[in-house]
Amino acid sequence: MKTFDLEIVTPEGSVFSDAVQSVQVPGTNGSFQVLVNHAPIISTLGNGKVKVVKEDGSELEYHTQDGVVEVMNNKTIILVEKILED
Predict the structure, then answer these.
(1) How far is the C-alpha of 38 from the C-alpha of 34, rounded, in Å?
(2) Whose CA is closest to 27, among 57, 67, 61?
(3) Which domain holds residue 58?
(4) What is the pLDDT of residues 8-61, one digit of tens each?
(5) DSSP-assigned beta bridge partners for residue 33
(6) Strands 48-54, 75-84: parallel, antiparallel or unpaired by DSSP?
(7) pLDDT value of position 86
């Protein structure tokens, strides 16, 4: 399976940085998924879940509060205010 680079960052520092198969984010106009070769985009994020499918197929989930996502050239950067505890 093809992958792309994902980084999740808070004001405190990097939370996640690795190759992934996909990531689903809580866009302010609705949730959307990023896959390899996604068109370039910058979008605001609301409160919600960021779901990550890692290169090996395992899944991670982060509950986030507000932020932005930038997708360009198979690199996705998610900047969030904070990661909320379950």
Answers:
(1) 6
(2) 67
(3) 4-84
(4) 999 999 999 999 999 999 999 999 999 999 999 999 999 999 999 999 999 999
(5) 24
(6) unpaired
(7) 62
The dihedrals phi and psi of 84, each to the nearest 5 degrees, come to -85, 145
d(CA 53, CA 60): 7
2 by DSSP, 3-state: which?
coil
Assign residue 66 the CATH number of its domain. Answer: 2.60.15.10
Q: Are 52 and 38 contacting, i.e. CB atoms less than 8 angstroms apart? A: no
- Is 4 within 8 Å of 11 (Cβ atoms)? no
Distance of alpha carbon 64 from alpha carbon 80, whole angstroms? 7
Number of domains the chain is built from: 1
Answer yes or no: are the C-beta atoms of 10 and 82 closer than 8 Å. Answer: yes
Distances in whole angstroms, Cα of residue 9 to Cα of each of 1, 2: 25, 23
